[in-house]
Specification:
- The structure holds two protein chains of two kinds.
- Chain A is mainly α.
- Chain A contains twelve helices and no strands.
- In chain A, helix 4 crosses helix 5.
- The longest helix of chain A has 24 residues, at 10-33.
- The radius of gyration of chain A is 34 Å and the shape is flat.
- Chain B is mainly alpha-helical.
- Chain B has one domain (2-394): Formate dehydrogenase/DMSO reductase domain (Formate dehydrogenase/DMSO reductase fold), CATH 1.20.1630.10.
- A two-stranded antiparallel ribbon of chain B has the order 1-2.
- In chain B, helix 2 packs across helix 9 and helix 3 (61-77) packs across helix 14.
- Chain B is globular, with a radius of gyration of 23 Å.
- The chains are: A mainly alpha, B mainly alpha.
- Chain A binds chain B through residues 9-12, 14-15, 18, 30, 33-34, 38-39, 43, 91, 106, 108, 112-113, 115-116, 119, 121-123, and chain B through 1-2, 5-6, 8-9, 12, 15, 17-21, 93-94, 97-98, 100, 102, 122, 125-126, 129, 152-156, 160-161, 164-165, 168, 348, 350, 352-353.
Chain lengths: 246, 399
């Protein structure tokens, strides 16, 4: 062994010694630094779970709010915001339920807050109330017209685009721009105040489109017309043509 | 909460089409752009150095040590953007204590450590050992002890020992080439293996990353050589410079071909993501991808270096062309990293909408921090040049 060591060049010996020192330091230091319960439950420190459990609870949960704010809770429970928990708008309330006099919750009064959910965005579902904040009463705070605990609009939307903005935008650039929504959809009055319960009608037959687009129909010149019996006979029209952008 | 709302509201206006709620803000920002850029420079500079030792390209000898020190300076800084991005840099050593073999990101520590300790430092040490000993013999004061310490108090300058040094350098370089490939291939691997993102998920990604890394590394060493040599009032070795430009040209051709292959492959494959990607490339990424990455960073330098090669231009003009081309290449490669990292996050997983990236100036993820990180390797390189002069005239004869 000694004779073998002697054969190693001088500089390599120094590197070997340095590497051995580094390795020894690593081997000595590692057990000190790795927590003893590391790896017991997985690739983490098992006691981390207790640390997380011991963290202060910030949210109280909406049931607690009901205990004191029964009236508001009832109002909200019957409104469109029934599934929006109180702390979504008012912030974490765990401290507030302990010290209700000193720790007041915040009340968002600005326009910035509401539009996080209600700004027009095509990714939001059709029918979800959305506005373009720049043009929707830009100088007024939302809460001057809408009560956040019962946000039903004070007056029913003037037109369909109030909620169906995405469709309205498509229609605006389509040949159907002058066709009013009610020409194809029969919307009951209740739909304006309770849209999920009362649905407007939709055309169900080819003949409905044929009302304008069948070749035997004496329509205004310029409307594209086809022989409704032979044109794509086995399909309904909207399988190929999107009526809002045909 | 209100801060978040205020932060997201202006971003919301830039969103187009259909995106999911958690896609408004990008998770990887400018710091993560820097990281592949810096590691790429390391790998590229090292590959350039290996040309001298393994492939015996004698013309590049003046840049050999410079490339090694450049690789080292940038390697020291390379993990900083990651540490800054992740937060808690004081905990970073833990990935070495409890290695998580199922996480490619966690294994980067080992790839990095291997490259730093087993490749770069060792090669530099063996290459400089004789000079360190000779310098320390002549010097006085602090520098003498620094050089003594750096040589690990080694003193053997016999012919046999120097032969061993040379042999070691060669062996380490041979190990170093796959290691450099591993280092930067790894970065491409991280992006290429994100299967949920069609802009990244491609087996070509590590290879494209690697060749763009070599391009950026050669261009960087060329720039440093062209800036440092006149500052030292020494003539630029045109043979060396022409060779550097030639290698830059060849690797750029390969890099460009691979990127084109990747592009054609994507277009031909026409997966469902192709529409949103083409919308991205022709819209939000048009300037950074088509104009800066492809035109300014690739085609113009390629064309100008080719022109410098074909026409017998005077040396001064050639220098100017190479210098400008190398700067454009750096811009182009930085843009490449930007387009991969930022571009890959700009489109929604719904493939129907685009979000936006807003860079901040202050803050950990801001421009200022990134700028400081980008300057740091240059400062480190300056110190390294002072400690370990890479110039040929600094090489010592055994007396």
């Amino acid at each position: 062994m000694i004779s073998y060591w002697k054969k190693i060049p001088e500089q390599a010996k120094r590197l070997v010694v340095l590497a051995a020192i580094l390795l020894a330091v690593f081997l000595v230091v590692r057990p000190q630094l790795v927590p003893p319960d590391f790896g017991e439950l997985g690739h983490f420190r098992a006691s981390a779970l207790q640390d997380i459990v011991a963290q202060p609870i910030r949210y109280a949960g909406h049931e607690v709010c009901t205990d004191c704010h029964e009236e508001v809770a009832e109002k909200k429970g019957n409104s469109y915001h029934r599934n929006v928990a109180c702390e979504v708008c008012h912030g974490p309330a765990a401290v507030h339920i302990e010290e209700e006099e000193t720790d007041m919750l915040r009340i968002p009064r600005g326009r910035d807050f509401c539009i996080v959910c209600h700004e027009y965005l095509s990714s939001r579902p059709t029918g979800f109330p959305q506005i373009v904040s720049e043009s929707h009463n830009p100088m007024k705070s939302c809460i001057t017209c809408h009560n956040p605990h019962d946000p039903t609009p004070p007056e029913k939307p003037k037109d369909c685009a109030g909620c169906h903005a995405s469709i309205a935008r498509s229609k605006m650039v389509s040949h159907h721009v002058y066709v009013p929504c009610v020409r194809c959809h029969d919307a009951p009055d209740e739909h304006f105040t309770n849209p999920r319960m009362y649905h407007p009608t939709k055309p169900t037959k080819r003949e409905f489109c044929g009302g304008c687009h069948a070749s035997d129909d004496p329509s205004v010149a310029g409307i594209p017309q086809v022989d409704i019996d032979s044109h794509g006979e086995r399909y309904v029209c909207w399988q190929c043509h999107y009526p809002h952008l045909p | 909460m209100e801060d978040i709302v205020q932060h997201l509201t202006p971003l919301l206006k830039e969103v187009s089409g259909y995106i999911f709620p958690n896609e408004i803000e990008l998770h990887w920002g400018l710091l993560i752009v820097l990281y592949p850029y810096l590691t790429g420079l390391v790998a590229g500079a090292f590959i350039l150095a290996s040309l001298v030792k393994v492939f015996n390209v004698k013309e590049l000898q003046p840049t050999y040590r410079m490339s090694l020190l450049t690789a080292l300076a940038f390697l020291i800084v390379a993990p900083l953007p990651l540490l800054g991005h992740l937060g808690h840099p004081e905990k970073s050593y833990e990935i070495f204590l409890t290695p998580n073999t199922s996480s490619a990101m966690a294994m980067f520590g080992f790839v990095y450590a291997w490259y730093l300790m087993a490749v770069l430092l060792l090669e530099i040490w063996f290459d400089y050992r004789k000079d360190l000993i000779m310098w320390s013999r002549k010097e006085k004061g602090l520098m003498k002890w620094i050089h003594k310490l750096l040589s690990l108090f080694s003193s053997d300058v016999s012919e046999k020992a120097i032969r061993f040094d040379k042999k070691s350098v060669r062996v380490i370089t041979i190990i170093g080439i796959p290691s450099a490939f591993l280092l930067h291939g790894y970065v491409g691997f991280i992006f290429g293996s994100v299967k949920a993102n069609p802009f990244w998920s491609s087996v070509l990604m590590p290879i494209v990353f690697l060749f763009s890394a070599i391009v950026s590394g050669i261009a960087l060493v060329l720039l440093i050589y062209m800036i440092v040599t006149p500052m030292r009032r020494k003539p630029i070795d045109m043979l060396c410079l022409n060779k550097l430009a030639s290698y830059l040209f060849y690797v750029m051709i390969i890099d460009f071909s691979l990127e084109t292959l990747d592009f054609i492959h994507r277009v031909y494959e026409s997966e469902e993501s192709i529409h949103i990607i083409s919308e991205l490339v022709s819209g939000k990424l048009f300037v950074s991808l088509v104009v800066i990455q492809v035109l300014i960073g690739m085609l113009i330098p390629l064309g100008s270096i080719a022109a410098a090669k074909i026409f017998k231009l005077p040396d001064e003009l050639k220098k100017l062309i190479y210098f400008v081309a190398a700067i454009l290449v750096q811009m182009g490669i930085f843009s490449t990293r930007w387009n991969v990292v930022i571009g890959g996050q700009l489109f929604s997983k719904s493939f129907r909408g685009l979000t936006t990236y807003k860079m901040t100036f202050f803050g950990l993820e801001g421009f200022l921090v990134s700028f400081i990180i980008l300057i740091m390797p240059i400062v480190i390189l300056y110190i390294l040049f002072k400690l370990l002069p890479p110039w040929d005239e600094a090489r010592q004869q055994v007396t």
